[in-house]
Amino acid sequence: MEEADLYSIEGLLQILPDLPSLLHHVSSKRLKMDGGYTELDNDQQIEQVKSHIQTIESIVHKLKSDLTEMEAAHAKGPAESENWRQQSEKRSKEVLDTWMKPPSRGESPSQEEPNQGESTRRLSQSEYQKYGRQMIMPEIGLEGQLKLKKAKVLIVGLGGLGCPAAAYLAGAGVGVLGLVDDDTVSHSNLHRQILYVEGGVGLSKVGRAIHILRHMNSSVHYEGYDYRLTPEKAVDLFRDYDLILDCTDHPTSRYFISDAAVLTGKPLIHASALRTEGQLMVLNNPPSREGNNDEGYCYRCVYPKPSPPASVVTCGEGGILGPVVGVMGTLMAMEAIKILVPTTQQADAQVTSPDDHQPRLITYSAYSSPSFRAHRLKGKRKDCVACSSAATITRESLESGSLDYVAFCGGRVTYDVLKDNQRMSARQCKYLFDHGKDPHALVDVREKVQFDIGHIDGSINIPFSDISRDTDASMNQLENILSSDGTMCSGTTLHFICRYGNDSQLALRKILELPRCRAHKDMAKYVLCHGDNLYIIGRDIIGGLDAWRREVDEDLPDY
Amino acid sequence: MSTEPSKADVPIVVEFTGGLELLFSNQRKHRLLLPSSGEKGQPANTAFLVRYLCENVMKDKRKEMFIIDGTVRPGILVLINDADWELEGGDQYELKKNDNILFVSTLHGG
């Protein structure tokens, strides 16, 4: 059931076909809680079965009376129907809560465990039940579970990394789970962002994530921050947490999250993923403090200078496989548990060695062998501007906003590379193809795998990567295709299209830069010369295939 | 291992990940025979290897996606036998037989 909403009549109706198996499950679960039949004498066994039958009958009775009320309410119209629904939900919750609870063996809860008073029990009964499987691990134990319960973890970014990380940390029973994201759910998220369902598309990620996480584990306190984290806000927010997970997707946030983690003295788990690969580092662990600068290294120690903007590829551009980013988010949750419950503090922990503190980069590459690798890093830089004794980045510089992370990372890439008269709309292009006298050709510069998903009939695929790699060779390839097609002879005008209208502009500009591309006096146009053949450089399609789908052909795949 | 300069080429494995493989014919693992000395007789160190890769292995014309100012661009980690090259002497590290040199481009997606 999507919302796991057992408390509404709609929810109950949905599970009706599964009711027999559900009742069996609940009944045997209850039996387990009671210690099983074997520990009970004959009379008690009979009482048990009677009690189970009673529970099941009460549910059936409730469904019957709900059905009668529901029919009556619906007959009175929508207002009354809604009113009834709300009332019913409340009552259903009460019934179900009693249903799921084990029957008390004594008269009052204090007699449940006569030898152990309430004061000596350090977790609630439901917590022992929920966390039992991890608490019996020597790595966790009761003390570890109590540490988790006290822990406050902040997850920045609720995408492919943040979703699995949040799910596992909620399941592990951290005390407070903070979630930051300003985005809304979209269809393209669902293959990897496992906290969202189709019904949540268009809604706030923070809101939807907390909704489902509460269903997973209601013992955790969830704090939502439905905004875009900025350097100005980061320091203040990080102060309230013990540990930060960087699940964002951009160099600027990678740098300022690392800086803010160093300034507030919080360990930072950093991971990223693209296509078939992921990377993970545990940064600022243990945190750098004044006079204690030999400790953990930071993101700037590994990458003092940011990558050039042209080499930064997003999941939207490069693609991403769901399980790849899921693996990385899951690893982040595990690293978080290791930091929150250090094994060195466990009595029987002989497993750690000094080498465990060696700075490492973990990489996962789905199609390589071996898939997982750990690489030794240099670690802390003596002259790091963020975390060394020579640090120049201060809390003030972050909070005042005087550090321009966008500029540091090379600014925003702007795509207005062509003049207006070198561009046209999808509709204009369609008109030209249908009514133009001269021959026109449409060059689609998306990668082949995207072209194969869907393209405009008659368009020619010359991938942007080929054009970038070797513009001249890619134009020879185009010419071969054109000359083999009798209708696209010399004199054909070439237009360019891509997914959103960015790469096609860059492609057109690269072609214009070719030595054999020159201005033609008579035609007042640029022409591409190839032996005796001339091809006229036409225009770039504004907004690419995305615009074509909106303006011309809505059947084009919206991938 | 002998420190004497060898006349023979040095067999090494060079790997590219994090998208760098796209610049090298979409091939992650390259087995190379690196000349045992550089153009001017200098040792076959990683600085030489980077130039060698750029001139002889990289078919892609976007050299700036791999090299800026004569060395690997920011955002690329160089790992010699799975250790940061800065632990091994950086671009002065002299390559030995069967070394594994991995170039990793940092990823940002999430």
TrEMBL record, chain A:
ATP binds at residues 160, 181, 188-192, 205, 249-250. It is found in: Cytoplasm, Cytosol. GO terms for biological process: Mo-molybdopterin cofactor biosynthetic process; protein urmylation; tRNA wobble position uridine thiolation. Keywords: ATP-binding, Cytoplasm, Metal-binding, Molybdenum cofactor biosynthesis, Multifunctional enzyme, Nucleotide-binding, Nucleotidyltransferase, Transferase, tRNA processing, Ubl conjugation pathway, Zinc. GO terms for molecular function: ATP binding; metal ion binding; molybdopterin-synthase adenylyltransferase activity; molybdopterin-synthase sulfurtransferase activity; thiosulfate-cyanide sulfurtransferase activity; URM1 activating enzyme activity. PANTHER family: ADENYLYLTRANSFERASE AND SULFURTRANSFERASE MOCS3, UBIQUITIN-ACTIVATING ENZYME E1. This is Adenylyltransferase and sulfurtransferase uba4. It comes from Lepraria neglecta. The gene is uba4.
UniProtKB/TrEMBL annotation, chain B:
There is a cross-link at residue 110 (Glycyl lysine isopeptide (Gly-Lys) (interchain with K-? in acceptor proteins)). C-terminal thiocarboxylation occurs in 2 steps, it is first acyl-adenylated (-COAMP) via the hesA/moeB/thiF part of UBA4, then thiocarboxylated (-COSH) via the rhodanese domain of UBA4. The modification 1-thioglycine is found at residue 110. Its main location: cytoplasm. This is Ubiquitin-related modifier 1. It comes from Lepraria neglecta. Gene3D superfamilies: 3.10.20.30. It is found in: Cytoplasm. Pathway: tRNA modification; 5-methoxycarbonylmethyl-2-thiouridine-tRNA biosynthesis. Belongs to the URM1 family. Acts as a sulfur carrier required for 2-thiolation of mcm(5)S(2)U at tRNA wobble positions of cytosolic tRNA(Lys), tRNA(Glu) and tRNA(Gln). Serves as sulfur donor in tRNA 2-thiolation reaction by being thiocarboxylated (-COSH) at its C-terminus by the MOCS3 homolog UBA4. The sulfur is then transferred to tRNA to form 2-thiolation of mcm(5)S(2)U. Prior mcm(5) tRNA modification by the elongator complex is required for 2-thiolation. Also acts as a ubiquitin-like protein (UBL) that is covalently conjugated via an isopeptide bond to lysine residues of target proteins such as AHP1. HAMAP family: Urm1 (MF_03048). SUPFAM superfamilies: MoaD/ThiS. GO terms for biological process: protein urmylation; tRNA thio-modification; tRNA wobble uridine modification. InterPro entries: Beta-grasp_dom_sf, Mopterin_synth/thiamin_S_b, Urm1. PANTHER family: RURM1 PROTEIN. One of its GO terms (cellular component) is cytosol. Keywords: Cytoplasm, Isopeptide bond, tRNA processing, Ubl conjugation pathway.
